[in-house]
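Task: encode each sequence below as structure tokens.

Item 1
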Amino acid sequence: MKSPLFYAKILLFGEYGIIKDSKGLAIPFNAYRGALKTTDNFDEFSKKSNENLRKFYTHVANLNSDLVSFDLVTFQKDLDNGMYFDSSIPQGYGVGSSGALVASIYDQYADHKITVLENLTREKLLKLKEIFSLMESFFHGKSSGLDPLNSYLSLPILINSKEHIEPAGIPSQKEGKGAVFLLDSEQIGETEPMVNIFMDKMKNEGFRKMLSEEFAIYTDACIEDFLKGNITSLFANVKSLSKIVLKNFKPMIPDAFHKVWKNGINTNDYYLKLCGSGGGGFILGFTEDYQKAQESLKDYKLELVYRF
């Protein structure tokens, strides 16, 4: 079968905040991708993927929503013919592995699908997000639908609020010293337990106040700086955000990285922030001098995302 590629995504800013309706900025990340394929000779990976797709098929078949319907006959037939999701996107790493899968299933089997080629009005974007939220809830229990939306459109997306999302133009990359990078924690993170910890913290008035008065304000400032290319201001705001996350989101940062996180803030060699829900997977890094950050973090695996 011929199926298009769907890419990983990186939520540059807005992790956890978007659950509570503050801003976010997500970009596609082409280094990791996935596509639906068929085989008549299963190996361990494709067999497991086919089994998981069958469970997902049951979820999709039982959605019972006016928003979307699927060609379930073809979907079932393709599963019987050995369909699997061939993906290089690491699972539990905060870069949208389930999002790319959801996008590919919608693209392949949704009836009357909204396509990337048509005029994407705000209504259409919100409808897509809602459909993807229903579909992706199979993986996380609760989903914003943003990961599949990002993967499906393959465009940067600016989240102004739950009801206001739009494609965003981000500045083209420069050949400068600065960079956004991924730091591999070499641990798998699970979304649901992390979101549960966050929801528990939200019962605390002090935490809610910090979220609206500090976290959201610096997140919004970072997004504005990034989109406008205000690099000096961006790094000052990212540093503040990194401090806030270290202080208030400790359970979401793997223990082994508390020291590394603090070291970046103290030396200004790099600043770290959560990538997705945290708890493992990738950690997102920002640096004004990528070479210096590489030297500071020489014991870890880094991957370049964007150059300033």
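Item 2
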Amino acid sequence: MDRFAKLLVKFTVTALLFWFAASAADLPRMLELLAKARPDWLAVSLALMFGIIVLDALSFSVVMRILGHRLRFRASLVYGLAGMFFGNLAPSTFGGDIFRAVQMQRLGAPIGTALRPVLTMRFVSFATLIAVILLGLPIALEVVRGGVGRTALIAIAASGGAALIAAYAMILALPQLRRVQRLSFLNRILALVDDFRRVHQDGAGTVICLALAVAQHVVRVAVLAAVAASLQLEIPFATLFALAPAALLAAMIPISLGSWGLREAAFVVFLGSAGVAGEAALSLSIAFGLLRLVMGAIGGATWLVAGSHHFAFDLGIDTKGRADAETSEIRS
């Protein structure tokens, strides 16, 4: 399937999901909520969203350091801001991650070296998101009405937990299998698994990575709480903490354009199961998406004015003394 066909499929899926979400909402009421949004709380939401990018930049810098590289926080922040633009522009929620890897490769990093820190950081983010979902599950089971909503939440938490356990089992077992080590085509996977192990066995670095990742998820819920306050929606923070992470996890499935439509459907389903009106859930998701577009526009402007030196990083020798790439330093 060529790119145009894939884009057409995602556009169709996005439209169908929007239709599903809209069918459960009072659209005139939703438009009224959006039109009366309080700008002061929207400003708070935007500030909190920028805080997520700062935490993400810190996390990326720490992961790079653990893997033996050096990326200044200022450069990591530029990666994060520009990545927000590509996260909104690309037909996938992982556009920002793709941008990071491509930009590093453009500066001369081998493709494997460029991809591994990005994938490692994404794995840490996924692991902590599952932990946050499990932490909020008891609250979710109290506020959710009906067996279908409860079943969906338990299924998401269980499948996410199982995937996480399987991933950790692979991290622990795969490098120990001698037959696997002899398969040359698995070298990149083994190198990535080794990176996962190093990040999760770094001591202080591990604690910092996990803390930063958890903080991002909590601040993202705070963004939604501020947006809800702007729209004058009476949704308790505990409800958002219990249900929004699961909805955002579902929205990561790359079947729509930038998670649009899928995120709205997930919010309507999950928050609706807790008694939140469809128009309230839909307006909350749309306002959140629009804030992401605003931040993406700021990221796009940052990308346009940034030169290669703003993305500069050093590829060093890792803690085991082996070369991490064909070149030891990447400069503008």
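Check on item 2: Residues 317-332 have pLDDT under 50 and may be disordered. The CA atoms of residues 130 and 194 lie 22 Å apart.
End of task.
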